[in-house]
Amino acid sequence: MDIMEINDNTLEWDLIPVLLSKSLKLLYQKSASVLKPYGLSSAHAMFLVVLSKSDDGLTLTEISESLSVDKAQTTRMVSDLEKKEYAFKNKKHSFSRNYKILLTKEGKIAANDVKKTLSELSKKVFVTCVDQNDKDVFLKNITKIIRYIKSDDVPSYK
Prior knowledge:
Layout: H1 16-35, H2 42-52, H3 60-67, H4 71-83, E1 87-91, E2 99-103, H5 105-129, H6 132-150
Antiparallel strand pairs: 1-2
Helix pairs in contact: 1-5, 2-5, 3-4
């Protein structure tokens, strides 16, 4: 028996974050093959997707906040994308410290492939495992949960 299986009669609150993380990790692992031709890993996928959502580019802070990751990880991933020529810094002036990250043409192609794959995988999972009503409820609830966690109503524990 998988220790991560949930008994339908018992809601184990401590497993919720683990199960959400595991489901996302498995989804990204399943999509990793589409990234191999680009020399990218599944860790890059979410950065490509977020960057593809903005035509004007995003700052490192905006990327970090969108993905809820620290700036160090964002800097590393963006640097990787730049080295592989999938992204570039758009500075207003050559001496400016302010810049936005944009996808190159190749970066947009890679991002579209990732988005298509993630969309197909997500659709297959939901169509196979969840009926339409439950899918709508899930998406509504996960959005509410994210907004609530981001709010000041949830304390940070030390």
